[in-house]
């Protein structure tokens, strides 16, 4: 069984009327990378039946 990682997000939720470029969470995540600010992540399967839309999926435990 894989260990669950919990991330704390700061700031306000994204504005649905005026969305930002890139990932909607990048202003709230202090370790966001340039790609997070520029490109919207695509939904991908990381485990059987577990999908994420995050450029950093699989890298978070390394920090």
Largest sheet: 2 strands, antiparallel
What class, by secondary structure content?
little secondary structure
Estimate the strand proportion.
5-15%
In total, the number of domains comes to 1
Helix and strand pattern: HEE
> How many strands appear in the DSSP assignment?
2
Helix share, percent: under 10%
With strands numbered from the N-terminus, the spatial order across the biggest sheet is 1-2
N/C terminus separation: 20 Å
Runs in which pLDDT lies below 50 for 5 or more consecutive residues are none
Q: Gyration radius, to the nearest Å? A: 13 Å
Shape: globular
Tally of separate helices = 1
Overall average pLDDT: 84
Mind sketching the topology for me?
Elements: H1 34-38, E1 44-47, E2 50-52
Antiparallel strand pairs: 1-2
Short description:
By secondary structure, the chain is mostly loops. The chain has 1 helix and 2 strands, in the order αββ. Strands 1-2 form a two-stranded antiparallel ribbon.
What does this molecule look like?
- The chain has 63 residues and is low in regular secondary structure.
- The protein has one domain.
- The protein has one helix and two strands, in the order αββ.
- It has one helix at residues 34-38, and strands at 44-47, 50-52.
- The chain has a two-stranded antiparallel sheet.
- Strand 1 and strand 2 form a beta hairpin.
- The longest helix has 5 residues, at 34-38.
- The two termini are 20 Å apart.
- The relative contact order is 0.20.
- The mean pLDDT is 84.
